[in-house]
Amino acid sequence: MAQKTYTQKEVSVIFHKNERTIRRWVAEGIIPRTRIKGELKITKAGLDQVKPPPTGGRDNVEIGKLRAMLQELIQILRSTDLTKEEQEKLRQAEKMVDKWQ
Questions:
Q1: C-beta contacts of 39-48 below 8 A and 24+ residues apart
Q2: CA-CA-CA-CA torsion for 60, 25, 27, 7, nearest 10 degrees?
Q3: Cα–Cα nearest to 23, from 43, 4, 42, 49
Q4: C-alpha 69: how far from its chain's center?
Q5: pLDDT tens, per residue, the chain with 101 residues
Q6: E strands, 1-101, in order
Q7: Could you give the CA distance from residue 99 to residue 82 in angstroms, rounded to a whole number?
Q8: Inter-residue contact 19 to 9 (CB < 8 Å)
C-alpha cells in the first residue's frame, strides 16, 4: 500500500502556517522528507513526528510585553493588603505568567 504524501501547500493548511514557513521548516529539517521513487516527499509518518517550533516574530514580542506588564502588576498588588483569597488568586496568576518563560 502506498504511503500518503503531502504537498507543502497541504502541509501549510494542516499546520495553519504560511507556505513559506513550511518551506523553511522543510529546509531546516523540522519537517522530514522521504525519497519515494526518486522524489523527496512529505509523508504522513513524517508529519506525525513534527513538533512545530513556538510562534516567533511579533506574537512573541507582544507576549513578552504582556508578561512584563503582568509581572509589574503582580508586584504592585503584593504591596497592598489582600485577603487570603486574593493572595491565592495572585499566586495562581503569577504561576501562569511564569509558565510563559
A1: 41/3, 41/5, 41/6, 42/5, 42/6, 42/7, 42/8, 42/11, 43/3, 43/4, 43/5, 43/6, 44/3, 44/4, 44/5, 44/6, 45/3, 47/6, 47/11, 47/14
A2: -150
A3: 42
A4: 21
A5: 677 888 888 988 988 888 898 888 888 888 888 888 888 888 888 888 887 766 655 566 677 777 788 888 888 888 788 888 888 888 888 887 777 65
A6: 5-6, 34-36, 39-43
A7: 24
A8: yes
Question: Distance between CA atoms of 37 and 3, rounded to whole angstroms?
Answer: 12
What cell was used for 57?
Answer: 516574530
